[in-house]
Amino acid sequence: MIEMQDVWKEYANGTHALNGISVHITKGEFVYVVGPSGAGKSTFIKLMYREERPTRGHIFVNGFNIERLKNRKIPYLRRSIGVVFQDFKLLPRLTAGENVAYALEVISTPHRHIRKRVKEVMELVGLGDKLDVLPNQLSGGEQQRVAVARALVNNPSVIIADEPTGNLDPENSWGIMKLFQRINDRGTTIVMATHNKDIVNTIRKRVIAIENGKIVRDESKGMYGYDN
Asked: Fewest Cβ atoms nearer than 10 Å: which of 10, 50, 139, 210?
């Protein structure tokens, strides 16, 4: 599903974010990406959905060769994956339902299918009664559930989440994690960068730990292993 082969990433300012990373993630896995701030986690995540390109090395995501992917092909990659961010990234002037629908509208999905699919995913995330509510009328936990629904609406085979509970209180964080577990149980691969020690140590999954741009641990049902 996801493979990195000797991947390096150096930014224009000379920062070496990743130094020779190799990893293989199979279909249906749930993987935490952990490590101290500045370790390279966000770069690792961004490479998967082609927000960044590797300096060298090979990356394959859901059949796409990332480093050779032409710009016009990027939307095709992103249709097959869902991305969830820490800060939700909802469009403030659109309702919750319209935010989710937008992901289908940009790929010219028929309107009759959009209405049905949006209702399905909003019910899945527990917000079937919030379709017509604006983001600023929702709690932080509800906004993140809308963001998850938006990531799910295209039936992606992979969901990539970058600190999805970072702006949430503990109760909402656990609610979002239960939702991710249900999604994973349905067969969707999930790769999640997180600083949430309690979640990683309680909901035990594969842990990939990155320090100074290198993978220092890769453990099945691993622990967080850091104080921060």
From this structure: 139
**Token pair belonging to 205:** 């999954």
3-state helix, strand and coil shares in percent for the chain, rounded to the nearest 5: 35, 25, 40
Segments in the chain below pLDDT 70: 228
Q: Which domains does the chain have, with CATH numbers?
A: 1-80+158-228 (3.40.50.300), 86-155 (no CATH)
Residue 67: what pLDDT?
87
- CA-nearest of 21, 19, 23 to 1 is 23
In whole angstroms, what is the distance from residue 40 CA to residue 33 CA? Answer: 10
H or E element, residue 157 = none
Q: What is the rounded (10 degree) CA torsion for 79, 73, 189, 121?
A: -10
Token code pair at residue 176: 């979002």
> Computed over its alpha carbons, how large is the radius of gyration of the chain?
17
Q: Could you identify the residue written with the tokens 């527990």?
A: 126
pLDDT value for 228: 59
Please name the residues in contact with 215: beta carbons below 8 A apart, sequence gap of 6 or more. 21, 22, 23, 208, 209
pLDDT of res. 80: 86
Q: Please, what is the end-to-end C-alpha distance for the chain in angstroms?
A: 30
Helix axes 111-124, 140-152, angle to 10 degrees: 130
